[in-house]
């Protein structure tokens, strides 16, 4: 279904499920299967994402062959109880330390999406509660998508000035 919609399906942690379902890739954390083994199991064409909270973790993931990084928690989140709040500063440090695309995660919603994207650094955002804790999941998704697209259009046309990590 996600393939029909043109959306890659990346399975969190479970390489066995990624293999069994011929998913597009897997996302692993620092205490999950090492990237090198995931790559051997999945082959060269699948997507491997790695959670990185520090520049050191980001560099290591890149050296090991990750395709993208997930970095957070950018803001406080109730979805994942045990994490570290990196804030925008921590996210920026990870992004600046790597040429890999970075997906920002943790507490992201329509209210703070522009702040995250206005750093000009992450390639995208990963969101749980701002979609799934909403009364109308489809409507919440549309609003987030519109906010992201509006931001990206403004960025392309030079309509949003990025200064000190703040959009204006
Ligand atoms: C983009 C992105 N970032 C992080 C995760 C994984 O979250 P989680 O499994 O809770 O944490 P780690 O064990 O990887 O630190 C994800 N799926 N996507
Ligand atoms: C899955 C996950 N990983 C995180 C990390 O910090 O690595 S935060 C998080 C939960 C994201 O959910 P929400 O959008 O509801 O905050």
UniProtKB/TrEMBL annotation:
Pfam families: TMP-TENI. GO terms for biological process: thiamine biosynthetic process; thiamine diphosphate biosynthetic process. Its EC number is 2.5.1.3. Keywords: Magnesium, Metal-binding, Thiamine biosynthesis, Transferase. InterPro entries: Aldolase_TIM, ThiamineP_synth_sf, ThiamineP_synth_TenI, TMP_synthase. GO terms for cellular component: cytoplasm. GO terms for molecular function: metal ion binding; thiamine-phosphate diphosphorylase activity. SUPFAM superfamilies: Thiamin phosphate synthase. Pathway: Cofactor biosynthesis; thiamine diphosphate biosynthesis; thiamine phosphate from 4-amino-2-methyl-5-diphosphomethylpyrimidine and 4-methyl-5-(2-phosphoethyl)-thiazole: step 1/1. It catalyses: 4-methyl-5-(2-phosphooxyethyl)-thiazole + 4-amino-2-methyl-5-(diphosphooxymethyl)pyrimidine + H(+) = thiamine phosphate + diphosphate; 2-(2-carboxy-4-methylthiazol-5-yl)ethyl phosphate + 4-amino-2-methyl-5-(diphosphooxymethyl)pyrimidine + 2 H(+) = thiamine phosphate + CO2 + diphosphate; 2-[(2R,5Z)-2-carboxy-4-methylthiazol-5(2H)-ylidene]ethyl phosphate + 4-amino-2-methyl-5-(diphosphooxymethyl)pyrimidine + 2 H(+) = thiamine phosphate + CO2 + diphosphate. Residues 3-131 form the Thiamine phosphate synthase/TenI domain. This is thiamine phosphate synthase. It comes from Chara braunii.
């Amino acid at each position: 279904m996600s393939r029909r919609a043109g959306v890659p399906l990346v399975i969190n942690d479970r390489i066995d499920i990624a293999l069994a379902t011929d998913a597009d890739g897997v996302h692993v954390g620092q205490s999950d299967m090492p990237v090198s083994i995931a790559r051997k199991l999945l082959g060269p064409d699948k997507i491997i994402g790695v959670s990185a909270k520090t520049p050191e973790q980001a560099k290591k993931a890149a050296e090991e062959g990750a395709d993208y990084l997930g970095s957070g928690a950018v803001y406080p989140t109730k979805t994942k109880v045990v994490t570290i709040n990196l804030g925008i500063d921590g996210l920026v440090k990870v992004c600046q330390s790597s040429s890999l695309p970075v997906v920002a995660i943790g507490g992201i919603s329509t209210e703070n999406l522009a702040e995250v994207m206005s750093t000009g650094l992450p390639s995208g955002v990963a969101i749980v509660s701002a979609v799934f804790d909403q009364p109308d999941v489809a409507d919440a998704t549309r609003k987030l998508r519109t906010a992201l697209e509006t931001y990206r259009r403004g960025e392309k046309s030079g309509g949003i000035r990025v200064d000190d990590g703040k959009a204006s």
